[in-house]
Every structure is written in structure tokens, then in C-alpha cells.
Amino acid sequence: MKRLHLRIWGKVQGVYYRASAAAEAERLGLSGWVRNRRDGTVEAVGEGSAEALQAFVAWCQRGPPMARVDHVEQHEEEPAGLPAGAFDVRPTA
């Protein structure tokens, strides 16, 4: 079990990035959350297998069709034991 904290820059708000990211994370069996930030970025935290997280990061680097991703920053964190398969879209922070 691993945990990654991501920040995504580019045209990532108003393009269904959060909903699409949550759907992709659920498809991959990840737990975590995604939210818009007031600075125009998107923030996501995912927990799961290394392979699933690698696939999620690759998806985040592309995003949904209307997005333009300029940069994805990732930091590994200690897993928090989030409930399996629960990936939430959170309010803007």
C-alpha cells in the first residue's frame, strides 16, 4: 500500500477534471480524494497499489479531453488507511 499527494497545474478547472479523476481512481481501485484549489490547480490524494498509483499519475498527466495539463507534482506520504474503494470529490480549498 502506497499513498501519493498530487498537485496538477494547467487548464484543469472547469473541464470535468475532478469527476473524471475520481472515476479513473475508482476504476483503478484507489482510495482518496480530489479537489480544486483556489489558485487554479487541482489536488489529489490516492492510496493503493504502486501499479494503480502509477497508472493514476499517468492519467493525471493527460487528464480528461478538455483539460491541458502543464505539470504534475507528486509526493509520497505515509498511507492513512483510507476505506478501500472510496474516492471522493471534495469542495474547493
Measured between the Cα atoms of the first and last residue, the distance is: 27 Å
In terms of DSSP E residues, the strand content is 35-45%
Give the helices and strands as they follow along the chain. EHEEHEE
Mean pLDDT: 96
- Give me the CATH architecture, please: 2-Layer Sandwich
Low-confidence stretches: none
Helix run count: 2
Model description:
This protein has one domain: Alpha-Beta Plaits (2-Layer Sandwich), CATH 3.30.70.100. The model has no long low-confidence stretch (mean pLDDT 96). The protein is built from 2 helices and 5 strands. By secondary structure, it is α+β, with helices and mostly antiparallel strands. It has a 5-stranded mixed β-sheet with strand order 4-1-3-2-5, with helices on one face.
Architecture blueprint of SSEs:
Blueprint: E1 2-11, H1 17-27, E2 31-36, E3 42-48, H2 50-62, E4 68-77, E5 87-89
Parallel strand pairs: 2-5
Antiparallel strand pairs: 1-3, 1-4, 2-3
Quick gist of this model?
It contains two helices and five strands. The protein is α+β, with helices and mostly antiparallel strands and 93 residues long.
Which characteristics define this entry?
93 residues, alpha+beta, Alpha-Beta Plaits, 5-stranded mixed sheet, 2 helices, 5 strands, 39% strand, globular
